[in-house]
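Q: Give me the 3D complex with cobalt (II) ion.
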Amino acid sequence: MDILQYPDPRLRAPNAPIVEFTPELAKISAAMFEAMYRTDGVGLAGPQVGINLKLLVFNPGGDSASSETEVVLCNPKIVSRSRETESGEEGCLSFPEINAQVVRPITSIVEAQDIEGNGITLELEGWASRIFQHEYDHLDGILFIDRMSSPDKTRIRPILNELIAEFRVDLAGTSRN
Ligand code: CO
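A: Here is the predicted complex, encoded as structure tokens.
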């Protein structure tokens, strides 16, 4: 399972609600964890692997040794968020070599379904809440570059331009095959 990089249009495409909780869906989420650990990530959303469904996985522990903190969420909805916010550093597997501060609410309460379709409610705070909100944004087609400060956007512009150029080259390569 490959992780798509910006500016792949699938990162901005609409993501459909999950209606069937099949064994295939469980396989997809397992493959997402594998891809995430392989690339030293802590979270991954369906659209990042070309699956435009409301599906995300994360693990604040960040490695397969801490599988007890793995979370899979289907059709997540944010019920409430703290008014209090904090700034923290984020990266994104779809944007290699970019890190920047993003301001987000500190806590979030989430309703979702697990991989079998059972309803679950999570109260998240700190690092876990930040990761969740980053991945949740992906399900709305929102990327962390959309939430950066203007100075950071200016700073990373050359890297974005490189990614855009590489994507065009890849596209050209694909169309020749
Ligand atoms: Co991301």
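A quick observation: The chain has one domain: 9-176.
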